[in-house]
Amino acid sequence: MLRKDAPRTGASRADAPRKGAPRTGAPPRAPEGSVLTSRPNPARIAAYFGLAVLGALVAIAGTLVQAAWFPGGLILALAASAGLFYGGRVLTGTQIGALAPAVGWFITLFLLLSGRPEGDYVFGDELGLVLFMLGGTAAAVMCATTSKVPQSAIRNSRSGI
Q1: Which of 47, 57, 62, 124 lies at 20 to 30 Å from 156 by C-alpha?
Q2: 32-84 pLDDT, tens per residue?
Q3: pLDDT value at 157 more than 70
Q4: Are 84 and 101 contacting, i.e. CB atoms less than 8 angstroms apart?
Q5: Contact 133, 113 (CB under 8 A)
Q6: Helices 127-144 and 42-68: crossing angle, nearest 10°?
């Protein structure tokens, strides 16, 4: 027995369009891959490289600033580092966006704090340098391990009030 809405061409019920499904006739798209399985994007690679260079510059500036004005300079240097890591995360929308400046920052800081062949350091052994390194590392880990970047209320067409 045929129902009124069933097609009369002999097609099965599975071939009939579902309720609520769009009738575009387009074939289904393949799911997008993750960051590691998708095709490399040259613009994103350039952004990661630029963020790594910015991380190196922030490490040099932070090392100098925190040594010049100890309590305030340390806070300023940590705020700049955390701002760069979070900004990279928001800019790219990926966790690698926070890790790229963190890698540049950490490598530069490690090279500045490692000893020279003569036995001395580029910068002296101070409490501020240790706090800058540990605080910056903690900020990088926090920015890289956040689950999602918060969406702004403007993008969702809500006023936020």
Answers
A1: 47
A2: 656 566 677 888 889 999 999 999 999 999 888 887 887 888 899 999 999 99
A3: no
A4: yes
A5: yes
A6: 150
Residue 32, class by beta-carbon neighbours within 10 Å (0-12 exposed, 13-18 middle, 19+ buried)? exposed
For 78-99, give one letter per residue: b (16+ CB within 10 A) or e.
bebbbebbbbbbeebebbbbbb
Residue 124 confidence (pLDDT): 59
Report residue 141 as tokens.
């880990």
Sign of CA dihedral 64, 102, 83, 43: positive
pTM of the model: 0.66
Token output for 35:
């960051």
The sign of the dihedral angle between the CA atoms of 79, 81, 85, 125 is negative
Q: Is residue 19 scored above 50 in pLDDT?
A: yes
